[in-house]
Design a protein that fits this description.
single chain, mainly beta, Hypothetical Protein Pfu-838710-001, 10 strands, about 50% strand
Amino acid sequence: MEIEKKYLIKELPDLSKYEYLEIEQGYLSAHPVVRIRKKNDDYILTYKGSGMLAHEEIEAALTKEAYEHLATKIDGCLITKKRYLIPLAPYTIELDVFAGHMDGLIMAEVEFPSIEEADSFTPPSWFGTEVTNDRRYHNSNMIFGNPLK
C-alpha cells in the first residue's frame, strides 16, 4: 500500500546539496495504471490500484530491452524529471522538477506509513497548494499535457 500526499511548490530550497535521480516514465494504461519507469539505470514495471491518498502498488524489474520495447507502446508523452531526495525526518520529500512537455512544473510527494500520519502532516513553509486529490497532477493524467498550461 502506498500512502502519499502531493504538493505544488511555491519556493525552491537550495537543491545543490541534495542527490537526485534521473527519471523517465510512460503509461501503458491509465485505468488501471500500468507504468514503465527508468530510474537512473533501473527499469521498472508498476501496477497501481485505484485511490488518491492510498492505493495498492506492485513493482517488477524490467530489462533495459523490455523497457525500450514497451516505451514504443506508451500512451501520450514520456514524462521526464529530476527527483531530488530531501530529508524531512522521519520522512523523505521527493521533489520532482519536470522537463519536456511538463517543463515548469515542480511538485513534491511525501510517503507515509499510515493514513493517520498523512492526515497529521504539516508541510514545510516552502510547499504550496496540496494537490493529492486533484487528478490533473497524477502522472498518469499528465501524459497528454501540463496542468499549469
